[in-house]
């Protein structure tokens, strides 16, 4: 009898398939006709048959909703962009690049600030300022501490029924948050006291079954991403959510020096944050 599963582990020739109606995991072996059609990635929904207590033959792969190349994972509903105000210092340009990229890839990006327990009064004020900037821009912002567990319950509820992955720079605590969420201790590596950063420890994508038909994945940390690698310079403006609320005089307005630009006017009025606008100019390489 055909069963529906999801690929939760994909490394070299190893494919781990989680059967959705039983919660059991098998080693998947794709038929040749499947391999001729496409590669198989973590997050793929597959149809097939259970052969024995260890083996599942993959007969077909369902059409993907989306595909993230970095890391290679399919059908992602939400991307948690994890950041910290301190340890390491907040990098809003990286966050703004990631927001553009994941929006373009048809995933829903959410900003998660970790290590809030380490913030002093000045740090909490800074957190509040950035939270307002991003909520005003139209993004959901969650605040957690993987160390104390603060905010983890809310994050757990937020991820219910989704395939989610974490993204963000190394050292911000993605693996630590995941450990709290799924109740399994993941390797986070040594913390350099000098840099206050975690060493890069994650090498691939593994999705962890989580709650009721929910899956969450760990991803490699990275310190830079260029949105122009994914999409054309002229299209970046379409992925700054707050820009889309305004209608400029010219439909092809790049929001730089054009007459009748409502976006630039909104920046001058304080309706769009200068920080976000500066990120936009930097992404499109117009920093004059």
SSE arrangement:
Blueprint: E1 3-11, E2 14-19, E3 25-30, H1 32-37, E4 45-50, E5 55-61, E6 67-68, E7 73-74, E8 78-84, H2 92-104, E9 108-114, H3 121-137, E10 141-143, H4 152-158, E11 163-167, H5 174-182, E12 191-192, E13 197-198, E14 206-209, E15 215-218, H6 262-269, H7 274-283
Parallel strand pairs: 3-5, 8-9, 8-11, 9-10, 11-15
Antiparallel strand pairs: 1-2, 1-4, 2-3, 4-5, 6-7, 12-13, 14-15
Q: What features would you describe in this structure?
A:
The structure is a single chain. The strands form four sheets. A six-stranded mixed sheet has the order 10-9-8-11-15-14, sandwiched between helices. A five-stranded mixed β-barrel has the order 1-2-3-5-4. It has a two-stranded antiparallel ribbon with strand order 6-7. It contains seven helices and 15 strands. Mean pLDDT is 89; it is low at 189-203. It has helices at residues 32-37, 92-104, 121-137, 152-158, 174-182, 262-269, 274-283; strands at 3-11, 14-19, 25-30, 45-50, 55-61, 67-68, 73-74, 78-84, 108-114, 141-143, 163-167, 191-192, 197-198, 206-209, 215-218. It folds into three domains: 3-63, Beta Barrel (OB fold (Dihydrolipoamide Acetyltransferase, E2P)); 68-218, Rossmann fold; 232-283, Ribonucleotide Reductase Protein R1, domain 1 (Orthogonal Bundle). The N and C termini lie far apart (63 Å). It is globular. With 288 residues, the chain is α/β, with parallel strands linked by helices. Helix 2 (92-104) crosses helix 7.
């Amino acid at each position: 009898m055909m069963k529906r599963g999801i690929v939760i582990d994909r490394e070299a020739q190893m494919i781990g398939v989680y059967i959705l109606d039983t919660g059991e995991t098998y080693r998947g072996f794709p038929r040749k006709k499947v391999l001729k059609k496409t590669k198989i990635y973590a997050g793929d929904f597959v149809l097939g048959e259970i052969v024995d207590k260890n083996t599942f033959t993959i007969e077909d792969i369902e059409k993907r909703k989306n595909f993230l190349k970095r890391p290679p994972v399919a059908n992602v509903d939400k991307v948690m962009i994890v950041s910290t105000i301190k340890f390491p210092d907040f990098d809003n340009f990286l966050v703004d690049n990631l927001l553009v990229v994941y929006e373009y890839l048809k995933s829903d990006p959410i900003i998660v600030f970790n290590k809030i327990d380490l913030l002093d009064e000045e740090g909490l004020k800074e957190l509040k300022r950035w939270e307002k900037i991003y909520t005003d821009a139209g993004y959901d912002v969650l605040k957690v501490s993987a160390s104390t567990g603060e905010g983890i319950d809310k994050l757990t509820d937020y991820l219910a029924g989704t395939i989610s992955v974490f993204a963000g720079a190394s050292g911000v605590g993605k693996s630590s948050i995941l450990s709290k969420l799924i109740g399994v201790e993941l390797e986070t590596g040594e913390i350099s006291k000098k840099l206050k950063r975690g060493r890069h420890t994650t090498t691939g994508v593994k999705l962890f079954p989580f709650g009721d038909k929910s899956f969450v994945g760990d991803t490699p940390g990275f310190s830079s991403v260029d949105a122009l690698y994914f999409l054309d310079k002229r299209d970046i403006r379409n992925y700054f959510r707050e820009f889309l609320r305004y209608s400029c005089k010219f439909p092809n307005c790049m929001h730089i020096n054009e007459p009748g630009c409502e976006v630039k006017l909104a920046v001058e009025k304080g309706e769009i944050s200068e920080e976000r606008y500066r990120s936009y100019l930097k992404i499109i390489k117009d920093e004059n």
